[in-house]
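re the bet — no i am not wrong, look at it urself. input seq straight from the record:
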Amino acid sequence: MTEPSTDTATENALAQLAALADPARAEEMRAYHKIDRPYLGLANPQVDDLVAAWRAEASVEERVALASGLWASDIHEAMVAAAKLLTQARLRPDEAAWALIASWAEGFNGWAVSDHASSAGGRRLVADPSRLDRLERWIAHENMWTRRASLVMTLPWARMANPKEADLAVRERVLGWCEGFVADRDWFMQKAVAWWVRDLSKHDPERSRAWIDAHGAGLKSFARKEAARHLG
């Protein structure tokens, strides 16, 4: 039997998403996200169910191809599904998946879709931390959402309960990026810095407190409070 082409697989997946569309909810989502793209009005569990079925039937290569097609559609739920297709700790080979996710990051334009893609990217970074070199180029990127992705994708290191020496080195590297972002006054960048330091405080409160003592005064008030929320 001939395997379906990439275009056919994408068309089939888009048709399955569209079959669940809720126009009224779609308009609510458009107003909430404030990004000008098509919305179908699906809830995350609906997308999760479809992605689980697609993942079970596809090789890694086919999943990457489908994710690429879904993302290119510019439909909100299809882009979320694309990211979820690649959100997996064990994914071998994963070079094509990482290249695709990183290419998406260069064009991020909102938090909702980019956070799903960053979750997938974080797993690829943990699998191969040498990929952090690419993120280091993003910290000066003209696109704020790409700059923000350098922190959101590295959150796994803030959340490690038992980091190894190499992981601690990554933490210090990213905390250095956070220091550089203190002067970035965009709300979403301030929030991302606070998010990183706050999550770290759950596992290494002393290091978080030291970072806040050294750099917190430069953060906006809301971000400083958020970063210290779990420190008492």
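see?? Residues 111-127 form the longest helix (17 residues). told u. also DSSP finds 14 helices and no strands in the chain. so pay up
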